[in-house]
Amino acid sequence: MTIDTGSVKAPRTLAQRILGFLGHGVVHVVLIIVAVIWLVPTVGLLVSSFRTSTDSAGSGWWTAFLKPAQLTFENYASLVSDTAALGALGNSLLITLPTTILVVVIGSLAGYALSWIEFRGRDWVLIGIIVLLAVPLQVAFIPVAGLFRSLGIFGSVIGVVLFHTAFGLPFAVFLMRNFFGQVPAELLEASRLDGASEWRIFTRVVLPLGLPAVASLAIFQFLWTWNDMLVALIFSSSQSQPLTVYLQSQLRQFGANIDILSSGAFASMLIPLIVFFAFQRYFESALLAGSTK
């Protein structure tokens, strides 16, 4: 009779335990340092948004921790009373929300069609979408600007929405096609045998299973569109400019408008964070999808 000692682990020595603890400790320390470095600009912007322009010009934002009396809500009161800033915030919502909805809806429908509906040229359509992923925004500025001008929508919110939707769809279709393709084929076949139409299968079977991917796509598209300045700077006008373009215009007069600039920048950053944390559980589910298969 032989004893298999290969599966028996030798007890760890004291030195090995100390080295293991120190190894994990170093990783934790490095992660904490990286997190602090990443948070410092955000904290600085938050503190600056509660300081007057005089205090900001006279000393650094960190002095507010020693002199809490510097903190005030005057900046946000000025921001709320600024009609141009409120209009830019409204334009950001008018651009971001329709773009996100259009990209998610069209991308989901196209992703399902490319995954489970047989039609002539389907593979070529997918190849074309993959090729479009590599097309940069800059190559379309001049021709699209000419097209929008001929249609009379250049400088309007509709033009910015259409541009973001067009360039957001290739990634959306590719993402949703890959995610919907993981749905078991037997589940769809059983639904078809029960007499369900493709639309019913999509809305009642596939879409609920793909909710994490849909939420992830919505988060990505919302963040990309909300934080965009290049497209809005070219295709929007003074009446349709979003918050990013408005803040960029205030940056030219930094010394006089730091109160509006700091509070507006933090408000612009706060809204995407709210959206992200609201859909965080779906985002995590999408990232972990397939990890246990």
Q: How much strand?
A: under 5%
CATH C-level label of the largest domain: Mainly Alpha
Listing every helix as H and every strand as E from the N terminus to the C terminus, the arrangement reads HHHHHHHHHHHHHH
- The global form is flat
Helix/strand structural class: mainly alpha
Strand count:
0
Distance between the termini: 39 Å
Indicate the mean pLDDT: 81
Gyration radius (Cα, Å) is: 26 Å
- Major sheet summary line: none
- Tell me the number of structural domains: 2
Helical element count? 14
Task: Please tag this protein with its features.
single chain; 293 residues; mainly alpha; MetI-like fold; 2 domains; 14 helices; 72% helix; 0% strand
Question: What do these coordinates show?
Answer:
Helices cover 72% and strands 0% of the residues. It is mainly alpha-helical. It folds into 2 domains: 16-74; 82-288, MetI-like (MetI-like fold, Orthogonal Bundle), CATH 1.10.3720.10. The radius of gyration is 26 Å and the shape is flat.
Task: Give me a quick take on this structure.
With 293 residues, this protein is mostly helical. The chain is 72% helix and 0% strand.
